[in-house]
Amino acid sequence: MKDMNGIKIIAVDQGYGNIKTANHCFPTGIIGSDTEPLFTGDMLVYEGRYYLIGEGHKEFLPDKVMDDDYYLLTFAAIACELADAHLTEANVFLAVGLPLTWTSGQKDKFAKYLSRNEDVRFTYRKQDYHIHIAGVKVYPQGYAAVAPFATKLRGLNLVADIGNGTMNVLYLVNGKPQSGKMFTEKFGVHQCTLAVREAFMRRTQRELNDAIIEEVFRTGTANIRESDLAIICDAASGYVEEIFHRLRDHGYDEGTMTLYITGGGGCLVKHFYSFNTERVKFVDDICAAAKGYEYLAELQIKAGKA
Predict the structure, then answer these.
(1) To the nearest 10°, the Cα dihedral for 158, 188, 73, 138?
(2) How confident is the model at residue 39 (pLDDT cuts 50, 70, 90)?
(3) For residues 232 and 251, what is the distance between their CA atoms, to the nearest angstrom?
(4) DSSP string spanning 125-183?
(5) Between β-strands 43-46 and 119-124, what pairing exists: parallel, antiparallel or unpaired?
(6) Which of 5, 148, 201, 264 has the fewest Cβ atoms nearer than 10 Å?
(7) 173 in the same domain as 119
(8) CB of 40 closer than 8 Å to CB of 212
(9) Are both 261 and 173 inside the same structural domain?
(10) Strand order from edge to edge, sheet including 176-185
């Protein structure tokens, strides 16, 4: 969170798997109830309803304004950042993002969705908050993660932002984004999770807990039988092979380009693909996109363009 003349710039990366701010990350899950639930540690209260944040599984939606979930999850994200500064009231400028090729068509609608109420009161983790939405700016996913150092890039670079729901691909020439060379595919990490579940059931006739799948994705291993681990690794390797097949379909050439991989899918590439460490770089910070949104918003506000 940055402060500019009393306005708090808060970036929120509303992913399909996790909600990220510049300093926080929590699962994209929300369960609503008309009555107060038993466990209230991460509870949001808004307009008389109770919401458990980070619980349940948020289904993939190509348009995030189709329900109120991302609106409410954004309140929790704002509260996390304000709590760090010991604030309960603030004028907030939201910096958010959308998949590359969806940004131009959906950004106005998404900004309106997030700013539909200028003054908002809610309670999160038993703390009351009062915020004023001073503005909303929507930026393209993928580019945001490299924006803080993009001007230092030379030659032809390819950014692959592999999130939970989508993979965004963007070309940069000497750090400058190429608007005619960007792509969004519904081929995020969740597609790998589905492939692992199906392969495991087919070969063992047993179900596999998602927590184990996530551990293998993050670390390359887990405390399970070697035969079970092999099934997960085989399916994950097939998914990563398909990632690079799709990148090559979009013109990727390892000999002439440097590939920057950001998003949760980077772990899969690290563990399940053989790559040239000099030509493939990783942006490991899970909050990199949110930090990029914050960086871009600060530049635009300083220039009087936001």
Answers:
(1) 30
(2) confident
(3) 29
(4) TTEEEEEEEEEEEEEETTHHHHGGGGGG--SEEEEEEE-SS-EEEEEEETTEEEEEEEE
(5) antiparallel
(6) 5
(7) no
(8) no
(9) yes
(10) 176-185, 167-173, 156-162, 258-262, 280-283
Question: Rounded mean pLDDT of the chain?
Answer: 95
Residue 125 and residue 49 share a domain: yes
Domain that holds residue 18: 2-140+289-302
89-98/127-140 β-pairing: parallel
User: How many domains does the chain fold into?
Assistant: 2
Helix (H) / strand (E) element for 93: namely strand 89-98
Distance CA 276, CA 253 (A): 12
Instruction: Identify whether 170 is part of a domain.
Output: yes
Full DSSP string of 250-288:
TT--TTT-EEEEESTTHHHHHHH----TTTEEEE--TTH
pLDDT of residue 304: 83
What is d(CA 132, CA 83) in angstroms, rounded to the nearest whole number?
16
Query: DSSP label at 18?
Result: E
3 state DSSP class of 82: helix
Q: What is the pLDDT of residues 234-279, one digit of tens each?
A: 999 999 999 999 999 999 999 999 999 999 999 999 999 999 999 9
Q: Is residue 283 part of a domain?
A: no
Is residue 282 included in any domain, yes or no?
A: no
Model's pTM, two decimal places?
A: 0.93
**245 and 167 within one domain:** yes
Burial class (CB in 10 A: 0-12, 13-18, 19+), 83: middle
